[in-house]
Amino acid sequence: MTIPIPAVSAPLEVVPDDSVTMAEPSAPPGGEGRSPGRLAWRRFKRDRTGVVSAYVVLFFFVVAICAPLIAKVYGKNPYTTYGQNDPSLLNDFGFPVKPNGGISSHFWFGIEPQLGRDVFTFLIYGIRNSLLIATATTLLVTVLGIVVGITVGYLGGRTDYLIGRVIDILLAFPSTLFFIAFWPVLISIMVSPEENTPVWLTVVSLISVMTAFGWAPIARLLRGEVLALREREFVEASKVTGASPARIIFKELLPNLWTPILIQATLALPMFVTTEAALAFLGVGLSDPTPDWGVMIQNGAKYYESDITFMLFPGLSMVIFVIAFNLLGDSVRDALDPKTKR
Amino acid sequence: MSSTTPPAPAASPAPAGAHSAAPAGTPLLEVSGLTKHFPVMGGFPIRRRIGAVQAVDGLDFSVAAGESLGLVGESGCGKSTTGRLITRLLEPTGGRITYRGQDITHASRRQLAPVRSEIQMIFQDPYASLNPRQTVGRIVSGPMEINGIGPPGGRERRVRELLETVGLNPEHYNRFPHEFSGGQRQRIGVARALALEPKLIVADEPVSALDVSIQAQVVNLLQEVQRNLGIAFVFIAHDLAVVRHFSQRVAVMYLGRIVEVADRDQLYGNPRHPYTRALLSAVPEVAADDAAPPRERIRLAGDVPSPLNPPSGCRFRTRCWKATERCGSESPPLVRAEGSGEGHLSACHYPEDVAALTESKGSRGTKGVTGSVDLEISKEP
């Protein structure tokens, strides 16, 4: 109170040592600040496992997207029964004449026993279909989880209680068993027995059932995050200035939630890949003429006692993909949340 | 209030000034009978209300334009709740909050909109009060964006001016909060509060999370803001020295009630409420005069009673050395006690003698900002 007060624009007497010295060395003057996102990207680039698995995952997605192009260049398709058209490829028992599943310069991954389809194109189309289903499911699950989680967390009270119980039930529900038990019933209601089940119906029902059971974990996680965040003072600061709930959710809360969302999504996708394959293997979901990882493994299981090659390609590629994606998810988490120690 | 015309950066248009031609002498903010009870739910299987935390119970005070009112008290006495009630972050259970003659006690978000820009808040924790995902520029310009204010020269220019006002480098516009120290972050919080050119700022323990050396800087900054821009403050703190440095008027709270309110000099020099006296006597003297006899120290016995079930009558009576039966049956009103100065109100049946603590007047410090105060609460042997 004895300090003479200078004009507002004049620097305060106590300021210089604080603001000038500490700020300058951190970044070039006038430069952009290092956003949390950028810092995470830097950390990610330094993580070798993460980068390698990112490339592997990227490779799978490129293959999936370019499958028709690759097939065209390669000159085959997954539906033609090459082995039956050309009797020199399969022997009398329906197995490839050449060793190792009939691998040759024409058929890179060999040909399938009995039908004689090309394994390579079947595999890349299978990857394409599996990834399509898994990616669509992941997107839907994430969007649904975000909407439900943030709404419930922000509103709290009775809504929170009701949706919380729904989430509990969903998490406890044996979704795979449910699908195996009820999917045929559902299909028989929608499709007359004489007709073949259209592929789109299978795909849509797969995606919707996996979504219906899949959103619960991410919603529950985000609910907790929002509960913690909405009590933070920056939300109150926003309220004091008159921010609407929509603005608080989208501008204040959501940017702080991308970390858990991204982590959950990267861990969910490989899970859906395996779930989808498991369903196909068990005979529900996609079935034979449609190329799919699960269908391939199902076929491979018929022959692996005599020749393991047909099991090897889909099995190995799937294991590689799932491991790479999970490692990627771990790296993403480590990069976004530097405090987690493994 | 200081009527120094603020310099150019701060002299930008007064927000929504048309409706607010309050006559001189009318307090900016008037609070009467303000009450906030937090319900306590429990029971099984049907959850029901089993009690209430009486966080704030019948507050009366007013803040004049340009004035700084300090609100002190122990932890849990309802200071922060009061701040959040004034800014309407919490819904009051009872009472009235009037801002410039306008009743805002239960105003909805839309009704509040014009008032929102005039009452701003500075928060306690500079690490929690800034969104980690937003740049400084976005944090400070956010309030303007929400209220649709487009200052001449654009929002970015205004933000840079504000950053300069609070002693930060305008080049920090694109930085993120994690790149700043605690003191700098609190300055960003101040800049954000100033962005709407408020008439009243509620500062909720703005320096208690900072280093002592940084506390002085931030308090000085707030003081300049208050003097140069003529902004009224409700300054919530538990640190008596900081409040003394900053506030012209001080209210002492105990368990959800104001026990004494007076001008700074009267309150610190001549406390009438036993609790105020005990609080003041607990302030450690850093540079005690060796010649002076050691000051009498009042040790309060026992703990603060639970606000779930506060004592009847005077709430301080359970720890008061003067308490009688009357204190338990009769709640003392907040009135001007005999011998008190103008505007010096205290709520006690047996006020302290006038000038009981005069000897400490001499130590009324200019550099009293340092040295935080913890209440010493120990059982009497």
Write the layout of secondary structure elements.
The complex is a heterodimer of chains A (342) and B (381).
Chain A: H1 16-23, H2 36-46, H3 48-65, H4 67-74, H5 82-85, H6 99-102, H7 119-155, H8 157-172, H9 175-190, H10 199-229, H11 233-240, H12 245-253, H13 258-281, H14 293-303, H15 309-336
Chain B: E1 29-42, E2 48-63, E3 68-72, H1 79-86, E4 94-99, E5 102-103, H2 109-116, E6 119-122, H3 136-146, H4 155-165, H5 182-194, E7 200-204, H6 212-229, E8 232-237, H7 240-246, E9 249-254, E10 257-263, H8 264-269, H9 274-281, H10 325-329, E11 345-346
Give a nutshell description of this structure.
Chain A: This is ABC transporter permease. The complex is a heterodimer of chains A (342) and B (381). Chain A has 15 helices and no strands.
Plain-language structure description:
The complex is a heterodimer of chains A (342) and B (381). With 342 residues, chain A is mainly alpha-helical. Chain A has one domain (44-336): MetI-like fold, CATH 1.10.3720.10. Chain A contains 15 helices and no strands. In chain A, helix 2 (36-46) packs across helix 15 (309-336) and helix 10 (199-229) packs antiparallel against helix 13 (258-281). Chain B is built from 10 helices and 11 strands. Chain B has helices spanning 79-86, 109-116, 136-146, 155-165, 182-194, 212-229, 240-246, 264-269, 274-281, 325-329, and strands at 29-42, 48-63, 68-72, 94-99, 102-103, 119-122, 200-204, 232-237, 249-254, 257-263, 345-346. The termini of chain B are far apart. In chain B, helix 3 packs across helix 4, helix 3 (136-146) runs parallel beside helix 5 (182-194) and helix 4 crosses helix 5 (182-194). Chain B folds into 2 domains: 29-253, Rossmann fold; 271-378, no CATH class. Chain B is an alpha/beta fold and 381 residues long. Helices cover 25% and strands 19% of the residues of chain B. Chain B is globular. Chains A and B meet through helix 1, helix 11 and helix 12 of A and helix 2, strand 6, helix 3, helix 5 and helix 6 of B. Chain A: One of its GO terms (cellular component) is plasma membrane. Chain A: It is a multi-pass membrane protein. Chain A: Belongs to the binding-protein-dependent transport system permease family. Chain A: Pfam families: BPD_transp_1 (PF00528), OppC_N (PF12911). Chain A: Residues 127-329 form the ABC transmembrane type-1 domain.
